[in-house]
Amino acid sequence: xxxxxxxxxxxxxxxxxxxxxxxxxxxxxxxxxxxxxxxxxxxxxxxxxxxxxxxxxxxxxxxxxxxxxxxxxxxxxxxxxxxxxxxxxxxxxxxxxxxxxxxxxxxxxxxxxxxxxxxxxxxxxxxxxxxxxxxxxxxxxxxxxxxxxxxxxxxxxxxxxxxxxxxxxxxxxxxxxxxxxxxxxxxxxxxxxxxxxxxxxxxxxxxxxxxxxxxxxxxxxxxxxxxxxxxxxxxxxxxxxxxxxxxxxxxxxxxxxxxxxxxxxxxxxxxxxxxxxxxxxxxxxxxxxxxxxxxxxxxxxxxxxxxxxxxxxxxxxxxxxxxxxxxxxxxxxxxxxxxx
Length: 340
Fold this sequence. Notes:
Elements (H helix, E strand, L loop, with lengths): L1 E4 L10 E4 L9 E11 L1 H7 L16 E9 L11 E5 L8 E5 L3 E3 L6 H6 L1 H13 L8 E4 L5 H13 L2 E5 L5 H7 L3 E3 L6 H8 L5 E6 L4 H8 L1 E9 L13 H9 L8 H7 L2 E4 L9 H17 L6 E6 L3 H9 L6 E5 L1
Parallel strand pairs: 8-9, 8-11, 9-10, 11-12, 12-13, 14-15
Antiparallel strand pairs: 1-2, 3-4, 3-6, 3-15, 4-5, 5-7
């Protein structure tokens, strides 16, 4: 098999393509011949050596794949063999062949490509948890989606539209037309506009019911202030800490120090009638039944045509470094994929 390794922390060019023997599925596992692997910002943070959950380097990252099962371990029904699937992977997704527990593989609905399968799990499960499970977004409410042109952002827009919510989104100006075509009512150019002031202007001073924010640092403070009474802030990353292509502990420290450590306290939350919560899909591996129920709901929405992953760009394994550059340079509108 072929895999993309991170041998040490560094810029995208540290990524290495290596070959190894094909793995054999252990009891309870299935083996997938991968046709597409999803690239996530967590992979970038891992490459920079700033991801706390990353196994010791050298390591193969990657959380999601689309492909076909070609072998199963003991205890797994053989009718899995030959099925087209999408799967969550606990690292190792940057591989053309890998084994995962049976519970982490899901049959793809008719008509879903391997690329769409690789683009769905992390982004749409994260968006579902943020909006539906913990954010409690309802029809008629307004959600502010940060990084609206990214994978999670587009997933959140599609889910929010399905729920009947109003949608505001932050993104660079070049992505506004595409976002409006997806149903975003108001686009805010974060490079030129103060999103907090613009949000209050759009809502006549009231604020929005839900904000989802993966930027971190001072953005969390401004997002919290953008909430209406009974509003909720969903936090799911700190992309502001990964501003450069090389490891930068100072950038990470500045982002952490800018967090609203004092703003989110029990007294202020009670007095303002607001809520704040965090989401990290990578810490839910033991919640198999719960996460699988979310996946079933999402696959049903896909079958109904309510959600459709948007693919921004595809890179062959040999150009993995370019994929990381592309994502860090914020060039993507939608999902970035690696193709074995």
